Amino acid sequence: QVQVVESGGGLVQPGGSLRLSCAASGKIIRFYTMGWYRQAPGKQRELVASITSYSTTSYGDSVKGRFTISRDNANNTVHLQMNSLKPEDTAVYYCNFVYSPTGWGQGTQVTVSS
Q1: 82 pLDDT higher than 90
Q2: On the CB side of 45, how many CA atoms lie within 13 Å of its CA?
Q3: 18-38: per-residue pLDDT in tens?
Q4: Are 39 and 91 in contact (CB under 8 A)?
Q5: Residues 4-43: b if buried by 16+ CB within 10 A, e if exposed
C-alpha cells in the first residue's frame, strides 16, 4: 500500500524558515514526479512545487525564489525548504505523486504569524 506522511510544519514568524519532509512507502519516489501542495482555509488545494525523476524542479509563482524542493533517495523522502515565509503561506501542506496520486496524507500545518 502506497502511503505518504508529511511532517515539519509549525508556527513561524514572517520572514522565518521551515523545512517540511514527506516520507513515502510502497513506491520508490525517485522514479516519479513528486509534488508539494497546500490548502489554505476556504481555498482549493494548489501545487506549489514539484520535482521530476530527472530532478527537474518547478514552482508556483507565489513561492518561486523562496521555496526549494529536493529529494533524498536514500530515505525515500521529499523535502520542501521554505524561506522568507509570509502570512499568505499559511496552509496545510501535503505531498503526493503528481501523475499517479495516492490517498492524501494528513498534511502538516504551517502557520506564519507574528
Answers
A1: yes
A2: 11
A3: 999 999 999 999 999 999 999
A4: yes
A5: bebbbbeebeeeeebebbbbbeebebbebbbbbbbeeeee
- Determine how many CB atoms are found less than 10 A away from the CB of residue 104: 15
DSSP type of residue 84: S
* Amino acid letter for position 101: P
DSSP of 20-83, one letter per residue? EEEEEESS-GGGS-EEEEEE-TTS--EEEEEE-TT--EEE-TTTTTTEEEEEEGGGTEEEEEE-
Question: Helix, strand, or coil here: 88?
Answer: helix
